[in-house]
Design goal:
285 residues, mainly alpha, 2 domains, 11 helices, globular
Length: 285
């Protein structure tokens, strides 16, 4: 789909083979390997307990070394591919900050709903998929059209404000979460988060590319992809690590202070069991 849109939307220009010969292939290779190494470290960090794992420490050290080599290479090559000076502009830096905030705010759509519905509501993944599948295409199309219309009709800053407002409303709705929630209660949250993601990301990217020299757009694209992939992975794995550590801490504290001989233990278990049965009946079709 992306290729088809690019084919019909891009300007037909002849292939510049001279530019291809002068391309910074070394910088692209170093940058790509550095990002791949960093992604592996982030992906395995939570599972291997971060700095207690020699593999994760080695991957992070290799990433730092490769980034230094990349910056040194881009400073010395005659025609750099993605020179770091592209980030010196104030508006571009603010645009990247908006993308970072967007990645953090959109964490709920990839962490809260699926984890809650699997761990607490005891739904299978295919049951969660059935909730989103019939509406996913229409929802994405509607959100995309809305984002494009807002960027074209109002200022980009106002569009960013509208997008983050959608995130704020979805977060406020999430504060009312209880163990009785199931699929219907998450629908409005998912809709708000979908619209917020489309609106904020499109407005932030439009802000970035409207403040850069078109001749350096390729350099900016490289760093946009870094923010889109690495930032989201960093936020997700950091939150997963925090949740795991809190679960371990509270599990230890409960086991330390609550035993089978604790007064009222049996009555509390009976109450929890009745609540679980009530929730199960409520979720049955």
């Amino acid at each position: 789909m992306i290729g088809i849109l690019f084919w019909y939307g891009g300007k037909p220009t002849p292939i510049d083979r001279e530019l291809l010969r002068r391309g910074d292939c070394g910088g692209m290779a170093i940058f790509g390997v550095a990002l791949t190494t960093l992604y592996f470290a982030l992906d395995q960090g939570n599972r291997l307990d971060w700095f207690r794992s020699g593999l994760v420490v080695t991957l992070l050290a290799a990433t730092g070394f490769l980034v230094c080599v990349f910056l040194w290479h881009e400073a010395r090559v005659k025609e750099p591919w993605a020179h770091i000076s592209i980030l010196a502009s104030r508006n571009i830096a603010l645009g990247f900050a908006a993308i970072a905030c967007f990645m953090t705010a959109s964490l709920g759509s990839s962490l809260l709903e699926p984890n809650f519905l699997v761990s607490v509501a005891r739904l299978r993944p295919e049951q969660i998929g059935d909730f989103t599948a019939p509406y996913a295409i229409l929802l994405l199309l509607g959100a995309t059209v809305t984002a494009v219309a807002l960027v074209r009709t109002v200022k980009q800053r106002a569009t960013l404000t509208i997008g983050f407002t959608c995130f704020a409303l979805s977060a406020w709705l999430g504060t009312q979460l209880t163990n009785l929630w199931s699929l219907p209660e998450f629908r409005l949250i998912v809709i708000l988060q979908t619209f917020g993601e489309e609106i904020v990301f499109l407005a932030a990217v439009a802000t970035l590319f409207s403040n850069v020299n078109p001749a350096r757009a390729i350099s900016l694209t490289a760093y946009v992809q870094v923010m889109r992939l690495i930032c989201s992975e960093t936020v997700a794995t950091s939150m997963a690590t925090w949740v795991r550590q809190r679960e371990q801490l509270h599990s230890y504290l409960i086991g330390l202070h609550v035993t089978g001989a604790t007064p009222g233990w049996n009555s509390i278990l009976a109450q929890l069991g009745s609540v679980r049965r009530l929730a199960g009946r409520r979720r049955m079709p």
